[in-house]
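Write out this protein's structure.
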Amino acid sequence: MNKVISEHTTIGVENQKLAIWEWNNLFSDELANEGKVYNVSCHSILFITSGSAKYKLDFEILDLKEGDVLFLNPGQVFQCVELNDASGTILSFGNDFFLVYYHKDFFKVNVNLLNHLSQQLIISIGNTHRVNLYSLLALIKLEMTELHICKPTIIQQRLIEALLNMLHRECEKQAVKDVIVAERCLAIRFKLLVQKNISMQYNVDYFTKELKVSKSTLQKATKIAFEKTPKDILEETLLLEAKRLLLISSMRIQEIAYELGFTDPTNFTKFFKRHEEMTPDRFRKQELLSYYQK
């Protein structure tokens, strides 16, 4: 069991501006083969419209039911564990979808909305708003049946904007009420910046300079928003990326260590073992064994 998983495919539309799939059309018979690994290539939103399902996202088991919305981010590892008459829709945003907006103000607002939503994991939509949400999805799909080669139509962009705003509203309803808006925004900006700069070379000092805030201000923000210190978030992000690479890449342990900014592979092994209580090599073999036993 020395090889890594090579039988994975992607969720996303890197070469398209926008794509929407009905649940069964996307996965067809593949999800019936539980354990199939998907690499998320771009921002995607998964809507469960009926039934229930169990998924594994970045090594965490998630139980989803009708009305749940799951946010998928580039680089994540996604697996199906169990389906119970589940159906739904996936909406994927290509890397340049928002760059072709007709109005720059729409670009800024909607990119910020998507970035904010991408830091959530799951939100549950109540019965009342569920009808409106599914109607918007249906309208988006209908608009996409028209042939518009150059760039998304204004109608399509407005529908996407309405959808993101609706999801953001539901997200805010479920957020902790005593979280100060400014501090939550700072914490999210920090987390997004960390995700774009995953390397042992970047410490908390680097990010405070980039964000132009003091350590104490950042510490307070992450504690309020995530109940974690900035260092905790840095190490969690680094560890998660290591686990992703161990599962879906063919890179050797030494290569992964250097990719993540460790100057010595031994230090990477110590870091990994401190968090997971096993070596990177053992983790890879254990995950692969679990995968091939499906």
